[in-house]
Design brief:
Blueprint lengths: L9 H4 L3 H18 L16 E4 L6 E2 L1 H13 L7 H6 L5 H12 L5 H15 L4 E2 L3 H8 L5 E4 L4 H10 L8 E3 L12 H10 L6 E5 L2 H9 L3 E4 L1 H4 L35
Parallel strand pairs: 1-4, 1-6, 4-5, 6-7
Antiparallel strand pairs: 2-3
């Protein structure tokens, strides 16, 4: 059986994720601002669309650096390190699934439920710093009262609700679905289909705004118009993706395998 990737001492090599994320975001903003001839697609809803569905983190709200900082601190409490690339690759998935994949990929035994509770607590403590992401938030405000709208997130309900309140958009959405609603997570289409049902709109007449590959895939599987907002909010410059319906990096961890129980560690 292949062993987990060899990883140097986290105390020496672990970079600060929050600094890396902020530097990346600022660099991308500078590149966009300096690209004089670059035409960035604008967000709009085609006239045949009857309902709008938004992801929360990274789509409506500028929270990704806050979440990555919470991830970093939660892993650091165990003397573990999780690469930023790993978190980005699993963006849009519920926290418990990401932790299980981390355990499988890097040969760790992090207690999932305890980690999720700790990470969510750390995230909630930061969510008051969230800010709306334009032009997605502007689009939501413009269509309030014109089209029914929902939020579908892979995050915990407490975090999502707090985030929407922090950015001043909670009252726009009569329907908010999260990982706590007991439906299969993205990229499964179930959350989007349930949102459409609650909005009273057929899936084919719904437009989904997402910043994660898993969410875009879920929208396509639901038969909805899938719109990648990353070109508009400073993410990867990719074309807006519209599809018809259709049926390993290395982690850096502590030199003590499995983490360290000192300082409140909770490995299984």
């Amino acid at each position: 059986m292949a062993s987990a990737p060899a990883i140097p001492d986290a105390a020496v090599t672990r970079p600060r994720l929050i600094e890396a994320v902020e530097m990346s975001i600022e660099s991308e903003k500078a590149l966009v601002a300096s690209a004089i001839n670059l035409e960035v697609p604008t967000l709009e809803a085609p006239p045949w669309i009857q309902g709008l569905i938004f992801d929360c983190d990274g789509t409506l709200a500028d929270t990704m650096a806050l979440h990555y900082a919470a991830w970093e601190d939660a892993f650091a409490a165990l003397n573990l390190y999780c690469p930023l690339e790993f978190l980005i690759r699993h963006n849009g998935m519920p926290t418990d699934q990401i932790v299980r994949r981390y355990n499988a990929e890097f040969g760790q035994h992090v207690a999932v439920a305890r980690f999720v509770a700790d990470k969510d607590r750390r995230s909630q403590a930061r969510m008051d710093q969230a800010r709306p992401l334009e032009p997605v938030a502007t689009l939501a405000r413009d269509y309030h009262g014109r089209l029914p709208m929902a939020v579908v997130s892979g995050g915990a309900r407490a975090n999502v609700e707090r985030t929407l309140r922090a950015i001043g958009l909670r009252e726009l959405f009569p329907v908010v679905l999260t990982a706590d609603d007991g439906l299969p997570p993205k990229p499964a289409p179930d959350l989007f289909l349930e949102a459409a049902r609650r909005l009273g709109v057929e899936p084919r007449y719904c437009q989904v705004f997402e910043d994660a590959d898993a969410g875009l895939e879920a929208a396509r599987r639901a038969g909805m118009l899938a719109t990648d907002v990353r070109p508009m909010v400073g993410g990867r410059m990719e074309q807006v993706v519209v599809h018809p319906p259709r049926s390993r990096s290395s982690a850096q961890r502590s030199s003590r395998p499995g983490g360290d129980r000192r300082g409140g560690g909770y490995n299984e």
